[in-house]
Structure prediction request, 204 residues.
Amino acid sequence: MKLYFAPGACSLAVHIALRETGATFEAHQVDLATHTLADGGGNYFEISPRGYVPLLEFDDGSRQTEGTALLQYLADLDPSQALIGAPAGRRRLAVTQWLTFVSTELHKTFSPWLWHKETADSTKRDAKLKLAARFADMDRHLATREFLAGDYSVADAYGFTIVNWSNFLGIPLSDFPNLRAWMARVSERPAVQQALRAEGLLKD
Prediction:
């Protein structure tokens, strides 16, 4: 497989999942500002007409996008399905519920609104207020458990990736101690450390 990613983007969650499952893959960095490949490999739009990451290219040459779908696919590569749970089980329901929450309530509140300079101040303020409410919800949830769906799952990889954008955007998490403790727990996982280092986000 080939993973097309941009450092720190939502593709980091898929990068983490690949390493968690021990999958064999090549990583290809994309410059999202210019939509070119960092290795000089040309126009990224020729690979992904939508122009965004993540994208997984399989050995047969087929290509798939959409992070939450890719995370579920990768979690199922592990016969134990430890990162997602068995089909029709409560564990899988909890994991997919959190994947959906992160996608709709966090990811799409951060992006595009808080990343673009042209976004109106009032819109940025509303987005930050919504995020604060969602962070508070997660903080309450994490007061009684170590990870979002009980044991560690692909939902934690995705949630970590998106909440981590707070660091890039200067959004404090000081009011959410349980959320910060969860971020620390996720960041300590070997696969997460490996992915962060590979993307240049963590220095030795």
Observations:
- The mean pLDDT is 96.
